Amino acid sequence: MGLATAHRLITEGARVIVTGRTQGRVDAAVQELGPNASGIVADAADLGAVDALMETVQDRHDHLDGFLANAGTGTFLPFEDITEADFDHGVDVNFRGASR
Predict the structure, then answer these.
(1) What are the per-10-residue average pLDDT scores of the chain (100 residues)?
(2) Angle (CA) 35 37 38, round 5°
């Protein structure tokens, strides 16, 4: 969904910044999207990485017109089998990283 949105934004004339947890996936997305895309490695579950991402964006670009938080995760187990660590990871990815 995020990559499709980036394609659409680029066809509308936008420049986009894509992020992901691994350099290879970020590089592949940027290559697919073309010259109006750039990439930064950042893990949405790591608040320090999200803060560093925002600092990098501020350093490289004069402004940011929009933000799409596309990261998401879940634990697909019976409720009684979900651990506190599972819950914390879901909150980190799905809420905390997108709230910065």
Answers:
(1) 92 93 95 96 86 91 80 85 90 70
(2) 110
Q: What is the pTM of this model?
A: 0.72
User: Is 53 in contact with 40 (CB distance < 8 Å)?
Assistant: yes
What is the DSSP code string of the chain? Answer: -HHHHHHHHHHTT--EEEEESSHHHHHHHHHHH-TTEEEEE--TT-HHHHHHHHHHHHHH-S--------------S-GGG--HHHHHHHHIIIIIGGG-
Long-range contacts of 28-31 (CB under 8 A, 24+ apart): 29/3
* Structural domains present in the chain: 2-99 (3.40.50.720)
